[in-house]
Amino acid sequence: MNATQITSPVRLTESASQAQDLIALVRDFVHELHPQRLRTDEVLLTDTLDRDLGIDSLGRTELLLRIEHAFRIRLPSGTISEAQTVGDLLAALQKSAPRRRLTQMTVAPPISLPLVPAAADARTLTEVLDWHVARHPDRLHATIIEDEETVVGTVTYTKLAEAARRVATGLVARDVVPGDRIALMLPTGFDFFAAFFGVLYAGAIPVPIYPPARMTQIEEHMRRQVGILRNAGTRMLITVPEAARLVALVQGLVETLSSIESVANLSVPTTASLPLLTDGKATAFLQYTSGSTGDPKGVVLSHANMLANIRALGTAIEASSADIFLSWLPLYHDFGLIAAWLGSLYFAVPLYVMSPLNFLARPESWLRAIHRYRATLSAAPNFGFELCVDKVEAADIEGVDLGSLRLLANGAEPVSAQTLRRFTQRFLPYGFRPEAMRPAYGLAESAVGLTLSPLGRAPLIDRVNRDALSRRGIAEPAKPDDAGALEIVSCGQPLPGHEVRIVDETDRELGERHEGQLEFRGPSATSGYFHNAAKTRELFHGEWLDSGDQAYMAGGEVYLTGRIKDIIIRAGRHIYPQEIEEAIAEISGVVRNGVTAFGITDQNSGTERIVVLVETAETDPIASNALQVRVQEVVTNILGAPLDEVVLVPPQTVPKTSSGKIRRSAARDLYESGHMGSPRRSVRWQMLRLYCSGLVAKCSHLPRLLGAFIYAIWWWSVIAVAAVPCCLAVLLVPKLEWRWSVVRSLARAALATVGAPISITGTENLPTGNAVVVFNHSSYADALAVAATLLGAPVYAAKKEFAHQFLVGFFLRRLGIFFVERYDVTGSLADAKAATSIARQGRLLVFFPEGTFTRRAGLTEFYLGAFKIAAEAGLPVIPGIIRGTRSMLRADQWFPRWAPISVYFSEAVQPSGTNFTSVLQLQDKVRQVILQHCGEPDLGELAKPLLSRD
Known about the structure:
Strand content: 15-25%
Radius of gyration: 33 Å
Number of strands: 36
Structural class: alpha/beta
Largest sheet: 7 strands, mixed
């Protein structure tokens, strides 16, 4: 399918002529793809590329390449994803610029940046960014490019940090609390960078998911994301403004999803104080493994995990700020996120990043960008190298020099020996050095990288006896004349500080060249899967983690043989599906990367049948039969036996992940469901189905919502009924102790009536008087919990605003409450003196030293008043810890929910003196005790502002 095969005349003089030539080109292309598809020779400008003409994603890429070659132009960026009709292609064609030859370009001026060290002492990713901001704020961090010639924007460390803090402030303003999961569905660009770090600065957890490539895939795309969003308990989704209205259709499917925002909406012009994240064990982000659908697995990665992996990778490749990284890898995947972006951030490596869609449309742009910017580091999965070999023409890369590359990592999917050879041989004339190619192996459960080939060596390919490996699990070296030998690429050695072992089914470690299950351990290893205890238990074998992959070791290097779940076992023989798939993909008429092989258990024999799905545009029965025969011939030559079933399916049928990897399990499910090749519905129909799905989900929640509503009404009814005798008792009962006794009894009765159990512990630490008790404050329900707990007639401190309210003020005075000024210094000193006088009378003083509360979970700073009173009166301070009330009744809400309440009194803390230093020490000790037991984060340590530049 070369552009040179097109015979339609190309005239660029008039719009009408362009339209005719474009229609002719599209018609020829469709006839080539689907000889029987068009009933007539008519192709209309209104025809949709997928529904009317049957052009899938790969076909779309090929069509755009042909248009560019035929018209000698460069189509605008985004055409591959945005164009829906032939008319859209014409509009893009008319806006395009003439195609330029590379020889007209010059190498970009070298980056003149001083060498700087990495952020070696950082404990978190935010500390990494702040470290760079403090030392070289204006240093170039990243350059976002459309292609090798077009720069979209540049990013310095300060620009990134300031934008991220604006996003974080917007998140906090929307009540996002530490630990909330925030999904990011954003394309490659500055917004993704700002949103990712903005979520981290807010103390929340980013969950990257990939954005839809085209509107025509909206239903399939969003249905795949729903499982992830549900499992993560996603609080908010940050996406592009154009996608927000579409995603809203599935909001009903995700119960926890409260809002959908864009980066622009979240960003505010000023920044507020933010939590200071210093705990390396805190979760940095959730990486959902590729292809997650019905049972999504969110890998929990801490800041320590990610930094350990980045440092280990940097050591293995000898990374420094003298390097230049060029990447098209998606940022929503760990390969692009951690290895490319965050690794570059850590080592102060200038990063050039381009959209993966631009690479797919024009793979030569990656190679040309490497040449232009003299990149030393880059990476791609195996299919990316294949795309370059198959789609890049000599004219596209004339004058390209790839000699600057010292490392080109090949990972994220099985590494093919054939691909390594093809790529190396093809690009040797362009300065590519074989030793620059570095096969690697990694998995999300180890952050991203686990093994890497050594520096300064070409890829190592092991030829093993096929029968010995498949039948006996031994990687026996093949004889030189063995034409049927298996070729397996070494993925190198474990990263520094990481270990790998090969074990059998009983977890017994195997010897050299014995195939088994690959297990690993090291500082990058995850703590498990988010909200998936069963899968987490399966993952861990003691202190080792199960990779799910089959492998063997030889000479200290790891050789991957396949995913355990994908290996087909037939008559005791292990059959590796990727080998079958690669061979069939070479057959003429088969869509490359459109073949999948899997096993189906035969219920009668108990053995596995081998089924292969083969994508092809062929519809002629005779040609289709010939293609099936050819597939059987090729596979028989490999396995020595034919396949059980060959199923020819239309293009775009075989399920793939966002990065282009075959989803064999999903393909098996599709085969068993009998829905292969079903036509896509219109976008309007898909949106309607999504809306209906959300509506059904909402209806299913109605009983629970109704129950919650009834409980809230009951809760307030009980409080209202209890308030009447409480007010009467406070107004009419003559003695203060008796009033408090009535209040205490009614508070306990109210909690019991609404079914909220309250447990009280540590009362042995609580005297009846001559002490100060301080509580954490998280809800109006705290007053109810404390009233039901303390004995006697305690003296509460309340804000002075209540004193000026006629009814409330009178009621509180009858209970002996004293009022304090929170903000006026002169007034607060006078209040402290009055309270000290009360304390010396033997009363039990009760304070909420936070002063107020917010919806945001966490312990805020304490006011000094309670501790000054205790120090001057020489009274012990009893830390009181209340838990559960925030869940019962959050700030800014009047909808109570059922929650158990607990009150715990810790041992008394004695003041060490009366001076200001002693008061501060007393405050700090008490606050640390409450922080230790309250189960909420510390919001007292506020983020330090960005250091000003001299």
